[in-house]
């Protein structure tokens, strides 16, 4: 999100999380003030930012989640998790670790992050660190070996509603949706970078929430 009025309009749809890109090469780069967004976890999205820069943004905007979108190492995550667990923050700050997916993925890569990440997020590998706007083959996640809940991301647009529902209904081993914890949408719901189409979001959310309980 980039524009306060648009944030408030989207907040009325009661998403669980709202993302703010703190990566200055993105057209969605966020620099302003955030309005109060009660009940929504404000999430800072970072690409290879130093720990201290992340801490400054967390304090400044009272972020409740940090999304690491730049291939950050396990050692970096450990250092950041330690810093975020200090008692100087208003509430717990969740750590979401992003992995870029193609049609195959070596799930061994998740292991070093099991102890520090609260959630994994699977995005599509592309030219940009994120916001590429196209999906990966979600069948790769049939082999998901972890018990950690994950965000499904990468190019999910209004046309993907049925596919998302099918994905949620067909988790392997009848595990239900315990592991797919959230659906993350971005560029495919935009009028321009950072400006979300609330009507399309509303329709998508109601389609997914009604049909999937
Ligand atoms: O959107 C961006 O500009 C961006 C820049 C740098 C890192 C992440 C970014 N976006 C995140 O990418 C995923 C997927 O987005 P999309 O649906 O493919 O557009 C999402 O988490 C965005 O927050």
Structure write-up:
The protein is built from five helices and nine strands. It is of the alpha/beta class and 213 residues long. It has a single domain, classed as TIM Barrel. The protein has a seven-stranded parallel sheet with strand order 1-2-3-4-5-6-7, with helices on one face. Strands 8-9 form a two-stranded antiparallel sheet. α4 runs parallel beside α5. The longest helix is centred in the C-terminal third of the chain and has 14 residues. Bound molecules: the ligand O=C(O)c1ccccc1N[C@@H]1O[C@H](COP(=O)(O)O)[C@@H](O)[C@H]1O. The ligand O=C(O)c1ccccc1N[C@@H]1O[C@H](COP(=O)(O)O)[C@@H](O)[C@H]1O binds next to β1. Keywords: Amino-acid biosynthesis, Aromatic amino acid biosynthesis, Isomerase, Tryptophan biosynthesis. GO terms for molecular function: phosphoribosylanthranilate isomerase activity.
Give the class-level CATH name. Answer: Alpha Beta
What Rg, in angstroms, do the CA atoms define? 16 Å
**In percent, how helical is the residue content?**
10-25%
Overall average residue pLDDT: 93
CATH topology: TIM Barrel
Number of strands: 9
List the secondary-structure elements in sequence, H or E.
HEEHEHEEEHEEEH
Count of helical segments? 5
Oligomer: single chain
Could you give a short account of the major beta sheet? 7 strands, parallel
Indicate the structural class: alpha/beta
Shape type = globular
At CATH's second level, what is the architecture?
Alpha-Beta Barrel
Instruction: Give the ligands present.
Output: ligand LGQLAAA5
Distance between the termini: 27 Å
């Amino acid at each position: 999100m980039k524009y306060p009025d648009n944030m408030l309009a989207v907040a009325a749809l009661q998403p669980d999380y709202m993302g703010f890109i703190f990566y200055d090469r993105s057209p969605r780069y966020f620099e302003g003030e955030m309005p109060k967004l009660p009940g929504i976890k404000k999430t800072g999205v970072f690409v290879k930012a130093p720990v201290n820069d992340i801490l400054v943004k967390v304090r400044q905007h009272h972020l409740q989640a940090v999304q690491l979108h730049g291939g950050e190492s396990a050692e970096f995550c450990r250092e950041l998790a330690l810093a975020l667990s200090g008692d100087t923050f208003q509430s717990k700050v969740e750590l979401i670790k992003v992995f870029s997916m193609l049609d195959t993925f070596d799930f061994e890569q998740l292991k070093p992050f099991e102890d520090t990440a609260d959630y994994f997020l699977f995005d599509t590998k592309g030219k940009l660190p994120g916001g590429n706007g196209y999906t990966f083959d979600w069948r790769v996640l049939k082999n998901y070996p972890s018990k950690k809940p994950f965000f499904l991301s990468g190019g999910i647009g209004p046309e993907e509603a049925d596919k998302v529902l099918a994905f949620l209904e067909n988790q392997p081993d009848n595990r239900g949706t315990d592991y797919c914890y959230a659906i993350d949408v971005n560029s495919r719901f935009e009028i321009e970078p950072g400006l979300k189409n609330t009507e399309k979001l509303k329709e998508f959310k109601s389609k997914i929430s009604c049909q999937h309980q």
